[in-house]
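Session log. Operator J.P. requested a structure for one protein chain; no other inputs attached. Running the standard single-chain path with token output.
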Amino acid sequence: MKYTILAIIAFAVLSCKNEPKTASEEKKVKQTEVLEAGKDALIYPEEKHFKAIRQVTFGGDNAEAYWSFDDKQLVFQSNSKAWNVNCDQMFLMNANQTFTDSIAPPMISTGKGRTTCAYFLPDNKHIIYASTHLEQKECPDTPLRKNGKYIWPIYDSYDIFVADLEGNIVKQLTNEVGYDAEPTVSPKGDKIVFTSTRSGDLELYTMNIDGSDVKQITNELGYDGGAFFSPDGTKLIFRSSRPKTEKEIKEYKDLLAEGLVEPTEMELYICNADGSDLRQLTDLGNANWSPFFHPSGNKVLFSSNFEAERGFPFNLYLIDIDGKNLERVTHGETFDAFPVFSNDGKYLAFSSNRNNGGGRDTNLFIAEWQD
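Structure written below.
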């Protein structure tokens, strides 16, 4: 889901970071400590949905942590230099683990090219993820600005693969010309949703777990990506940039022709899993993205900077699936994004710049959730 980790901070994943961040006065905490609401700077007093929180990583850019179906493990991407990678690769962790510079989790991608958006399959023994390694072993260039504007690269060399938990690729699911990435799996365990440029635009598609029966879900001009199924598998929530004016359309098409997209103006859309009943969920302005369904299926948790005047901060917000009852969940001054609920609904994994000493690191956190 891009973007991971894409240097998403100025808007940063997804699919998929790395712009200067606001200095923080938060104190460092012991790396194994679990903190309770109101008792430490890791949880701000207004963050009533966090009963307790634990910091998982302590350096580099770490994001898009997704739970196994049994909630025992997570897979995430990191570019931590201390873990001997030069761009995003996939790492496996147990749900109760914490990592430092000297203790790295096992890498389960190839270590070649760039990867993004890993997700567990229902058997808890395999993952899917997108990678550029078939085209080049080195990390591809990552342009972050063009003509002064923040951009994301859309690599044509991304394809989607299945790997076991030892890192062995056992199957290639896509083999089309162009970008195939940002795959996630239905909680029902039967479908995968992903973003592709195979039609000439960035659209959503679904396929069976084995890669068969590919169907196009969206067909309007604009970047449709970062999609997730509802808990019952009947709906999709995703982010989209939908250019409307002649100027916007030209700028979008010109960037896409260069394998680029500008993600600074995006809203959330929701539809049925087959693409029917498509409607816009938010109309907040700025960048609204990284949505994930609340365990009830009646709300969506997402990241947004719509309240920011200069691009920051990004915070997490809840909204009902009918677009009502918008509620701010996090209250940081930098960056909170990539929220993902555990399958049992008890925990929330997310990425944040909190407690990084005012630097550029984006770390993983796991919070105990309370409604």
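Operator note: The first strand starts at residue 34 and ends at 36.
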